[in-house]
Write a structure and sequence with these properties.
heterodimer; A: about 325 residues; alpha+beta; Beta-Lactamase; Alpha-Beta Plaits; 2 domains; five-stranded antiparallel β-sheet; five-stranded mixed β-sheet; 11 helices; 12 strands; elongated; B: about 210 residues; Chemotaxis protein chec; eight-stranded antiparallel β-sheet; about 40% helix; about 25% strand
């Protein structure tokens, strides 16, 4: 086998497309390859023989020293990964046009260099530019997040869809038992929605649903959870709220929807809702019982004049 | 779970001795690095099938939720030599007191920093005990970067059964605890299939030399 000369070996390390540098126990740089020079702006002549932590005071000093100490004591490799620590050195990345991130993401490996006696006097550190991986991972995470959101959201109204909303309601009911807090529910339904569709058309009906949903969003508190339960039926979970509180919420919802000024193709469409409220009790078998009782109150409102709320128990 | 039926009594004793010596060294170097006394349990050596790994994990982690790190290691022979993965399993206690030991306490322990701390401490524990074993076998091990298997999850959720496509693995189980700290964790070294035979030959060589 042809012998590789030390010059050739040195040249190889110099031209690697990863950063390579070597430190002794006093943190003095012993080797600094081309990648490191180019990215740091410091040529090897300005670095070799100097203390790394003095050259780069922005490095997390205590942590870095401990990391190096571990490599010397345990004679063991050590690592950093961009996912937890985006970079060791604050370098620019090589995607000035399409990057969309501030700095070069880096995966680093700290390698103990054993001499012929098996002793470790030097540590070699390699720096891999993983900006591309970082960017695609971030894009993937963004997509996953949007996918998760859309699987929970009703397309037309942008409120939670029924299955996810029910999941939230069930969770709140369980939580209220565990923490002895109160959970209440408002169920409501648009009055004469069929007539709106018949008189103004289905597109007008969609517009009404959208505007009612926006009114719901503006009326409820941050801790309330609103969802589209069915065609024109909605539910709002009122967390940490008793029957007295949820009646106030129901009245606010009724009023803000009644005051809506829905326009569709120059026609003004009057919109009202009928509501029913109920409070969760730990004797209930599940959240479905709560929906059933709020629904009963809702039908009571429908039968007794509409554009009003009723609460369970109905004889109150 | 069997006490290494593939091995002769001599081989078993020899392996136990090697692992015990390695743990002594690991305890020393960890104490030097972390500046705190580290207690290691007597290593338990056995063979496990994939389904038994879960049972083993559940039996030694006394916590509903756990975090776990995995890391691969192999010697210079690659596929045919000594190779496997190390699992380090942490109960869901606070990692704050660990932060100070590896100088992670200069800033608030964010989620990312907590992950890095877990990866780092796992790498340190794995290296400390595996290097000692490898050295006595006349081998040098190479490690891949560690990665997260699960964070704050039930033991059952750590991995799918079909992730483990091997028949039988040699398992070395060690418990670590730190003096005057509530922190403790379990390390499981798993060397599947061919590594079992490889190690048996290696032990014979050592026994012949004695």
């Amino acid at each position: 086998m042809p012998q590789i000369s030390p010059e050739l070996l040195k040249h190889s390390v110099e031209s690697l497309d990863i950063g390579v540098f070597i430190l002794n126990k006093d943190m003095e740089v012993q080797l600094w390859n081309q990648f490191m020079s180019t990215n740091s702006g410091l040529p090897s002549t300005a670095v070799v023989g100097k203390n790394l932590l003095e050259l780069f005071p922005e490095l997390p000093q205590r942590w870095f020293k401990k990391k190096i100490e571990g490599v010397f004591i345990l004679k063991n490799r050590s690592f950093t990964a961009w996912k937890q620590r985006p970079y060791l050195f604050q370098f620019n990345h090589n995607r000035p046009v399409t990057g969309g991130v501030e700095n070069m993401y880096q995966n680093c490996t700290f390698i103990p260099l054993k001499d012929s006696a098996g002793e470790v006097e030097l540590v070699c550190i390699t720096i891999q530019d993983v900006t591309d991986e970082g960017i695609s991972q971030k894009m993937l995470e963004g997509t996953m997040h949007r996918l998760e959101e859309s699987s929970r959201t009703d397309g037309l109204t942008q409120l939670l869809n029924r299955s996810y909303w029910e999941l939230c309601l069930a969770r709140e009911c369980k939580r209220s038992v565990r923490y002895k807090s109160k959970t209440s529910l408002v169920m409501f339904d648009l009055d004469h929605f069929k007539a709106i569709n018949d008189n103004y058309g289905h597109l007008a009906g969609d517009e009404v649903l959208r505007e009612v949903s926006e009114a719901i969003r503006l009326t409820i508190r941050d801790t309330d959870i609103a969802g589209r339960y069915g065609g024109e039926e909605f539910g709002v979970v009122a967390t940490d709220t008793d029957l007295v509180g949820v009646k106030l919420l129901a009245e606010r919802l009724r009023k803000s929807i009644e005051e809506l000024d829905v326009h569709y193709e120059d026609q003004s469409i009057p919109v009202t809702v009928s509501l029913g409220v109920a409070e969760y009790d730990e004797s209930f078998s599940s959240h479905e019982s709560l929906i059933k009782l709020a629904d009963e109150a809702l039908y009571y409102s429908k039968e007794h004049g509409r554009n009003r709320w009723a609460s369970y128990p109905l004889d109150e | 779970m069997k006490e290494l039926p593939q091995y002769t009594e001599d081989q078993r004793d020899c392996l136990q001795e090697i692992v015990n010596v390695a743990m002594g060294q690991a305890g020393d170097s960890l104490a030097r690095l972390l500046e705190v006394f580290v207690t290691l349990s007597v290593p338990k050596i056995q063979t496990l099938s994939p389904s038994e790994v879960r049972v083993a994990l559940r039996s030694f982690v006394d916590s509903e939720y756990v975090s776990a790190i995995r890391q691969s290691f192999h010697d210079s022979k690659g596929q045919d030599g000594l190779r496997g993965e190390a699992l380090v399993v942490y109960g869901d206690s606070s990692f704050k007191e660990l932060a100070e030991l590896l100088a992670y306490d200069d800033e608030e322990l964010s989620e990312g920093l907590e992950q890095e701390l877990l990866l780092d401490i796992s790498n340190v524990l794995n290296g400390a005990c595996l290097n000692g074993i490898a050295e006595q076998l006349g081998e040098e091990l190479v490690y891949s970067p560690p990665s997260i298997l699960g964070q704050h999850v039930p033991v059952e959720k750590l991995f799918q059964q079909d992730q483990m496509r091997w028949e039988m693995a040699l398992s070395v189980e060690i418990n670590y605890s730190l003096e005057q700290r509530s922190f403790n964790c379990d390390l499981l070294l798993l060397m599947p299939d061919t590594a079992i035979d490889y190690l048996a030959n290696k032990l014979d060589e050592i026994l012949e030399d004695d």
